[in-house]
Write a structure and sequence with these properties.
The protein is 63% helix and 3% strand. With 168 residues, it is an all-alpha fold.
Length: 168
């Protein structure tokens, strides 16, 4: 007598997974994040580029020994303009992000980013920017970029795994 591959001696969890696997491979998908938005991705990339350019001009730098290599620039009108524009760009991205379902993580990161610009500006008013004073801003930028890259990857995966449209 030949036994079925999913006989009663097979653990229930394994049988369940074996029955569920074809459904997963058939392309059924549930999105737990909002879909990729190219405009948001571009705006985030542009904001990060402007921020890094600003920090490159204004932040003090040290060598491996901790010795000051470049003093950095003090807070001035150009810096004030940058912080205002960065907060404005963040607010515009946030406004767009709030219009999408399943976007709580991105929304929270954008709110945090706005606070990071406030904190860096307050620190900059007191003295020059350092690597450590910009660290929280960098972490928040990386988190926001990671969300965008993940959404892009998911969108690319879904597009490439979708069957081609018929030409009817």
């Amino acid at each position: 007598m030949q036994r079925s591959p999913l006989s009663r001696s097979t653990p229930a969890a394994f049988r369940f997974l074996a029955l569920l696997l074809p459904l997963l491979l058939a392309g059924c998908s549930v999105l737990f994040v909002s879909p990729y938005d190219e405009m948001t991705d571009r705006a985030v990339s542009e904001l990060v580029t402007k921020t890094e350019t600003f920090l490159g001009r204004y932040a003090a730098t040290t060598n491996e020994m901790g010795k000051l290599v470049k003093a950095g620039r003090p807070y001035d009108d150009e810096a004030a303009k940058f912080y205002n524009e960065a907060r404005g760009a963040t607010a515009a991205i946030l406004l767009r992000s709030e219009q999408k379902d399943k976007n709580n993580e991105e929304i929270q990161i954008l709110k945090d980013l706005s606070q990071r610009y406030d904190a860096l500006e307050a620190s900059h008013r007191l003295g020059r920017i350092t690597t450590s004073s910009a660290a929280a801003l960098h972490r928040t930028e990386r988190a926001l970029l990671q969300v965008q890259l993940t959404k892009k990857h998911i969108g690319t995966y879904k597009t490439s795994s979708s069957p081609p449209a018929s030409n009817l």
